[in-house]
Design goal:
The complex is a heterodimer of chains A (266) and B (171). With 266 residues, chain A is an all-alpha fold. Chain A has two domains: 12-57, no CATH class; 77-258, Cytochrome Bc1 Complex, Chain C (Up-down Bundle), CATH 1.20.810. Chain A contains eleven helices and one strand; from the N terminus they run αααβαααααααα. Chain A has helices spanning 14-31, 33-38, 53-61, 80-83, 86-105, 115-124, 129-156, 165-187, 192-205, 212-220, 227-258, and one strand at residues 72-74. Chain B folds into two domains: 27-58; 80-169, no CATH class. Chain B starts with 16 loop residues before the first helix and ends with a helix. In chain B, α3 (83-91) crosses α4 and α3 (83-91) packs across α6 (127-149). The chains are: A mainly alpha (266), B mainly alpha (171). Chains A and B meet through α3, β1, α5, α6 and α7 of A and β1, α2, α3, α4 and α5 of B. β1 of chain A pairs antiparallel with β1 (30-32) of chain B. Bound molecules: protoporphyrin IX containing FE. Protoporphyrin IX containing FE binds next to α5, α7, α8 and α11 of chain A.
Chain lengths: 266, 171
């Protein structure tokens, strides 16, 4: 009894009419030029999306995801037991760290007089401040672990062998960048833990022959850790190192595809 | 061209498809990224976010007193991922511990694909590579564990049950 024109007296019940109205609104939306311009053919948000092999291909091919994934991959490549998701998890943790890190930046000033107090008031004055700081800190530790385990898994699969030699080299760069990101962040709370851990860490740097002292001086902005160091490490931590690691990740992911997708089963 | 008598070409016999066309014997076992891979990735992302969130609800990041140049905490430890290096410093000259060993390790690691000329992926054929890398990874793991849990006052040897969780994690 959906046709209301032929029997005007028999109005469908209210829930039915609401549902019809909702359907009409959805149709109107999905037919609009705006909607069809946002969602390209094959998008699951377009009108009449059906689950067909062709549409499954379009979901990737006609969207920004095509920059990251091919349309199809080897069946074994989606087995969680092969990659253990470790590369992907490292990447997600990086995204989580970016999001929580941006939040923290709203409340933090990298000066020797303000830094510690800003963290302190983040704990007590800012809604979810402590929680977000905790997440940023633990995700950072976790990322060091997942990157290390990812490297181990790649090694034991022999996945660094031709044609993937260069991507392994890119990976070693990523490992070092991950450690540097973690280390530069360690100083920022400007508490006793931060100051002395970084003191121990940077003293080791001074042992490098020939230019060790100079490198240490440039990194600290002086003979010992102080206000200049805090500002330098802040800029390294929130801008420069993330910028560099994103470039290396882009190369890394691109090479995974160009080298023929992830390596085969043993 | 050809004369009026007929064509210079003629249709010969049936040709097996494999001989002129490149027909793949097996098309390869492939699956669509959507939904198979994307669903797995999405689940993994949710899982790691939930894990970090729950962990962070229960355990707070440390914040000790304000940095003070005149008061050296005892022990002073580098972040855990550098404790292997700090551990080496207790055993060797700084040049060796801080520069030579990590430097050589990193270079060998980066060039591993060019050093290992063996093309086989099977563990049976890779006994040497696997052993050497396992020893290498364990080397750092053990040093980090000693540095984290077995070093107390003055970076002297101690047992974790003597130091206590507080001393180790600053909780
Ligand atoms: C920020 C750090 C890193 C991120 C985000 C990352 C991400 C990824 C992802 C998503 C993959 C696809 C397969 C998988 O998940 O296992 C991959 C593959 C690979 N990664 Fe990484 N990776 C990182 C660090 C490293 C390191 C430290 C190494 C080695 C030293 C490395 C070497 C490789 C190689 C050789 C492959 C190809 C593996 C195969 O074909 O099976 N990556 N990486």
């Amino acid at each position: 009894m959906a046709n209301t024109l032929e029997s005007p007296k028999a109005k469908p019940p209210l829930p039915q009419r609401l549902q019809n109205a909702q359907q009409q609104a959805a149709d109107w939306m999905q037919d609009s030029q705006f909607w069809t311009s946002v969602f390209r053919p094959g998008s699951i948000f377009r009108k009449g999306y059906t689950d067909s092999p062709r549409n499954r291909s379009y979901v990737i091919m006609n969207s920004v995801l095509y920059h990251l994934h091919p349309v199809k991959v080897k069946r074994h490549a989606v087995k969680v037991s092969y990659t253990l998701c470790l590369g992907g998890l490292s990447f997600f943790l990086f995204i989580l760290l970016t999001i929580t890190g941006i939040f923290l930046m709203f409340f933090y000033r990298p000066t020797d007089t303000a830094a510690w107090a800003d963290i302190e008031s983040l704990h007590t004055q800012v809604a979810f401040g402590l929680l977000v700081r905790n997440m940023h800190r633990w995700a950072a530790h976790l990322m060091v672990i997942t990157v290390f385990l990812h490297m181990a898994r790649v090694f034991y699969h022999g996945a660094y062998k031709a044609p993937r030699e260069f991507n392994w080299v890119v990976g070693v760069m990523l490992l070092q960048l991950t450690l540097l990101l973690a280390f530069t962040g360690y100083l920022l709370p400007w508490d006793q833990l931060a100051l002395w851990a970084v003191t121990v860490g940077t003293n080791m740097m001074g042992f490098t022959p020939v230019f060790g002292e100079q490198v240490r001086f440039v990194l600290l902005g002086g003979q010992q850790i102080g206000a200049e160091t805090l500002l330098r490490w802040y800029v390294l931590h929130v801008l420069m190192l993330p910028f560099v690691i994103v470039i290396f990740m882009a190369i890394h992911f691109w090479r995974v595809r160009k080298d023929g997708g992830i390596s085969g089963p043993l | 061209m050809g004369g009026p008598a007929g064509n210079t070409h003629r249709l010969l016999t049936v040709v097996k498809s494999g001989s002129i066309q490149d027909v793949k014997a097996s098309p390869g076992d492939k699956v669509h990224v959507w939904p198979h891979l994307l669903a797995a990735e999405f689940t993994a992302a949710l899982f790691i976010t939930a894990f970090t969130l729950v962990f962070s609800l229960f355990i707070n990041a440390p914040l000790l007193e304000l940095a003070n140049h005149n008061e050296t905490p005892n022990p002073s430890k580098a972040p855990w991922y550098f404790l292997g290096l700090q551990e080496l410093l207790t055993m060797f000259d700084p040049m060796i511990a801080g520069v030579t060993i990590p430097g050589v390790a990193l270079i060998l690691l980066a060039f591993a694909p060019y050093i290992d000329r063996n093309t086989s992926l099977r563990p049976e054929d890779r006994k040497f590579a696997i052993s050497i890398q396992t020893i290498h990874l364990m080397f750092w793991a053990v040093l980090v564990i000693i540095g984290s849990f077995f070093r107390g006052q003055g970076f002297n040897f101690t047992y974790p049950w003597d130091t206590g969780l507080h001393g180790i994690f600053h909780l």
